[in-house]
Design a protein that fits this description.
By secondary structure, the chain is of the alpha/beta class. It has helices at 62-78, 93-97, 101-108, 121-135, 172-179, 187-211, 220-232, 242-253, 274-288, 300-312, 317-328, 333-354, 358-370, 382-392, 400-411, 430-446, 473-478, 480-494, 505-510; strands at residues 2-4, 16-21, 25-34, 37-47, 87-91, 116-118, 141-147, 152-158, 161-168, 215-219, 294-296, 459-463, 466-470, 499-501. The strands form three sheets. Strands 1-4-3-2-5-6 form a six-stranded mixed sheet, sandwiched between helices. GO terms for molecular function: exopolyphosphatase activity. It comes from Rheinheimera nanhaiensis E407-8.
């Protein structure tokens, strides 16, 4: 499906694009910002059904991988004139769950030049809520439901602020395969699907009902199709009610097989998914006691675009996430700022040699301000405690690899570096990770006395797996303990084939 009102390629530098690698379809939207608002210019949608290729062992089939790569190659052609910073690509449930997702991401690089970010379920729910909140104003609280191919996202928020977020492992593709194989429909199959969905929803019900809402909103293809069918059959003029859903279920059961369905608003590519999507929506109505649901034509992609717009205006939600974590774990902000200042001072001197980016600087700075969050647990093994918190915390704005990278830097900010324990990233190369880690370790080490008046001016030069740190000889002589620690650091880095050179260090220790 393509809908173009203006060529997105006229002035590509003025446009931005969001790509959503969903479990059922891949979507691309291109937009521009006009007077602070987003104007959508171009949409593309391709059915891929990645989730259909995910087996019980969570391995993605070669056929599904090929389908995905073929669509990415088509998208790449449209996005050819765009700068990397103008495109954001988000992958959801299937690539979040697939054990061989790294294989897909590696092969994608050969046909698609833009980085693919795999996001958590909570982050997916947040983007969906933001898309709705920015697209359609509502003064009270609202519940947002998005039934995808592999997962269903739920969010409650007020204005643009989400208050509850959850992603449940139930989707129209996975439930279709499990409960309605070969399109077979029966009352028993519906009841089993509804029951399983209710069981999946049960853990979040009390929290969501306690938050409350004045409006319930459904987004994306499944809800839109159900709404269109209900309206087409004359059950409703627009809004969806539980009685409409049950009437549609009875209508579908009477048909016995999805392949023979002929309903207003039901396209061929949705025939095998309508029963599973309906079962999930009925379960949500049952447990959340939803009276009425309205459809909104905005979701994850629009949420991504609005966040890209915010970042262009230097409003990065990740700053708020980091600040929230600092407050929650009572971080010593004076020390955090010392370490961050030192790390970024060194970064500015070596970034060109190491080909580091502004985004690398942000991630390093956040790691430097969060490396002590684990003190809240225990000072012994603080690096492990801090990394655990950062790996498992809900950090809005961070994709999975960004969060994992910050946690990895913090995990190895002191003591031994176990190279085998450094994860393999898709968005980051190992030398890049090592460089950022060296800068953080040096910043922590140089600020171990937790004083503002102790460090001299720092000068650093760098090469491949090499950094030279220039420190005044007389100052080093006065800091014998620090000089000894720097020697230990040289040995620690040598074990990962990195050379730290500090002229005059050996003489200072001997002296």
């Amino acid at each position: 499906m393509t809908d173009t009102t203006e060529s997105p390629l006229t002035h590509p530098q003025a446009y931005m694009a969001a790509v959503d690698l969903g479990s059922n379809s891949f979507h691309m939207v291109i937009a521009r910002v006009i007077a602070g608002d987003i104007q959508l210019l171009h949409r593309e949608k391709q059915k891929v059904q990645l989730a259909e290729g995910l087996n019980d062992q969570l391995v993605l089939s070669e056929e599904a991988i090929e389908r995905g790569l073929n669509v990415l190659a088509q998208f790449a052609d449209t996005l050819k004139p765009f700068a990397p910073q103008s495109v954001r690509v988000i992958a959801t449930y299937t690539l979040r769950r697939a054990r061989n997702a790294a294989t897909f991401l590696r092969r994608a690089k050969a046909v698609f030049p833009f980085p693919i970010e795999v996001i958590s379920g909570q982050e997916e729910a947040r983007f969906i809520y933001q898309g709705v909140a920015h697209f359609e104003h509502f003064s009270g609280r609202r519940l947002v439901i998005d039934i995808g191919g592999g997962s269903t996202e739920f969010a409650i928020g007020e204005g643009v602020q989400p208050l509850r977020l959850s992603s449940r492992n139930m989707g129209c593709v996975s439930y279709a395969m499990q409960h309605f194989p070969q399109g077979r429909i029966s009352e028993k199959r519906f009841n089993r699907a509804i029951l399983q969905a209710e069981q999946e929803l049960e853990p979040i019900i009390s929290s969501f009902k306690a938050a409350g809402w004045q409006q319930a909103v459904g987004t994306s293809g499944t809800v839109k199709t159900i709404r269109d069918i209900i309206v087409g059959l004359g059950f409703s003029n627009n809004a969806i009610e539980r009685a409409h859903l049950l009437a549609l279920k009875d209508h579908l059961v009477a048909q016995e097989n999805s392949y023979q369905l002929d309903l207003p608003g039901l396209t061929d590519d949705r025939k095998l998914l309508i029963c599973s999507g309906l079962a999930i929506l009925i379960a949500a109505f049952n447990l959340l006691q939803i009276e009425q649901l309205v459809y909104c034509d905005a979701a994850l992609r629009e949420g991504v675009l609005y966040e890209m717009s915010d970042r262009l205006q230097h409003l990065d939600i990740r700053e708020h996430s980091v600040a929230s974590l600092q407050r929650r774990y009572d971080v010593d902000m004076a020390q955090a700022q010392r370490v961050s200042h030192t790390a970024l001072t060194l970064f500015s001197q070596v970034r060109n040699s190491w080909q580091l980016s502004d985004e690398d600087a942000l991630l390093l700075g956040w790691a430097a301000t969060l490396y002590e969050v684990g003190l809240h647990i225990n000072s012994s093994g603080v690096q492990k405690h801090s990394a655990y918190i950062l790996q498992n915390a809900n950090l809005p704005g961070f994709n999975q690899e960004q969060q994992q990278l910050v946690a990895t830097l913090v995990r190895f900010h002191r003591r031994k570096i176990r190279a085998d324990d450094i994860p393999t990233f898709s968005l980051y190369q190992l030398p890049q990770v090592v460089c950022l880690l060296v800068l953080l370790r040096l910043a922590v080490l140089l600020n171990q006395k937790r004083r503002d008046d102790i460090l001299p001016e720092l000068t650093a030069t760098a090469g491949v797996q090499y950094l030279q740190l220039q420190l005044p000889a007389d100052w080093l002589t006065q800091q014998s303990l620090l000089a000894a620690d720097l020697q230990l650091e040289q040995k620690a880095l040598k074990k990962i084939a990195f050379v730290l050179d500090c002229p005059g260090l050996a003489d200072s220790v001997l002296g």
